[in-house]
Amino acid sequence: MDIADLKVLETVARHGSMNKAAVELHTVQSNVTARIRSLEREVGVALFYRHVRGVSLTPAGQRMLPYAARIAKLVADAKRAAQDDGPPNGALVLGTLETTAALRLSPILSQYASLYPQVRLSLTTGTSSSLTADVAECRLDGAFVDGPVDHPELHVETIFKEELVLVTPRTMRSLEPLRSVQDLKTIVFRLGCSYRQRLESLLTEMGILTTAPLEFGSMDSIIACVAAGIGITLLPRGVVTNAAERDIVAIHAIAPEKAHVETLFIRRHDAYVSSAMQVFIEIARP
User: Fold this and answer.
1) Domains of the chain in sequence order
2) C-alpha triplet 130, 134, 135: angle, nearest 5°
């Protein structure tokens, strides 16, 4: 089985399109199609369904995909281990919650870039659910996520501790009026965000009814919507302190057992921990 064919499998699966995969792989669609057909003949089953919108994995393809990613990662780790000599260098692909990026990572990234300019560090944001999947499936070297995480293939380390607070429009100086608000809306990140899940659980326990949540892709948009009186949200105190001090929003403490959360750094147990990764974790630790 050719490792290059497994890379093609992963790329086609991610894009759901032979043509888009070809663009990323800097080749032509006919070459991608031929490699997939060759791989299907070798394993003896179809790996993709073909349809007018592109392609999607068959059950066999879904079972095979994680192994393809791991094999590709293992080969990359072997090469990285052989070359990992001298100052930290090479690529380091990390993920983070947007709140963690805004609240914690600026000084860490600045110090890291200054000390280790030969490392090509890239950072992507997502929800705890999506980032955990990306690390487990070898699309990211590591990620900052909200705890708890219980995954047998992941190494987990607590890096930061945060206090969550309810964030409401500035005119709402207590939480009592929430019980009487008609059509109360929550302003949240997309499905898979742990803060969203915590907010829904908290409001249910308080006996507060809400309508369908409004989803936004950025923290600034969420805070702006709360400030405009559209709804409420749940975020780390440090993220919204400035907005509260400027009287843009109001923040409300909640019970400690609900408020205190840990931000974890996760990586695969079986992945090679490069010197670039080692020094990044050392800088990130409090």
Assistant:
1) 3-82 (1.10.10.10), 88-161+262-284 (3.40.190.10), 162-260 (3.40.190.10)
2) 120
